[in-house]
Amino acid sequence: MTVSLVVIMFELTGSLEFIVPTMVATMFAKWIGDAFYKMGIYDAHIDLNGYPFLDNKGEYPYSTVAIQVMKPGPGGGMLRVITQDTMTVGDIEVLLRETNFNGFPVVVSEENLYLVGFCPRRDLQLALHSARKLQPYVVTNSIVYFKSDVPETAEGIPAPLRFRKLIDLVIFY
């Protein structure tokens, strides 16, 4: 990409006599930069600012605990999570009302904080709104499942909601 950028710049300007020295200087600068620091400039800025960024080229173990990956910002308070199979519609509505996070890590349980995925706030709000609007059996104590295998419900218990498709699994790839 570095060489092609130099060629494009010289084609635009029309001064071809300096193309070889500029290309050599650019390649040396790139090699020296790569020798001292393996990341690109944008990755370095993300790292310096402490933003949560999971590189798609990196390897991440599946035994990651949510608190190791997700850290609230300054003044952000305690980390709030969504459990995979124990939260109700009412719990999620309270979570959305009391926080202003852009999303929530989905974990196995409150005791076992193994990370399952990430659920964006906007997707969660839209799914709850459409479930309330389109499905009359959704009540405050309806269980919300963020997993594929949902157990059968007994008679008299509100039907569960299946929100597995809301989970962003990019953090594992």
From TrEMBL:
InterPro entries: CBS_dom, CBS_dom_sf, Cl-channel_core, ClC. Keywords: CBS domain, Chloride, Ion transport, Membrane, Transmembrane, Transmembrane helix, Transport. It is found in: Endosome membrane. The chain crosses the membrane at residues 6-29. It is a multi-pass membrane protein. The keyword Membrane applies. GO terms for cellular component: early endosome; endosome membrane; Golgi apparatus; plasma membrane; synaptic vesicle. Gene3D superfamilies: 3.10.580.20, Clc chloride channel. The keyword Thylakoid does not apply. It comes from the Eukaryota. Its main location: membrane. Residues 70-134 form the CBS domain. One of its GO terms (molecular function) is voltage-gated chloride channel activity. This is Bm11399.
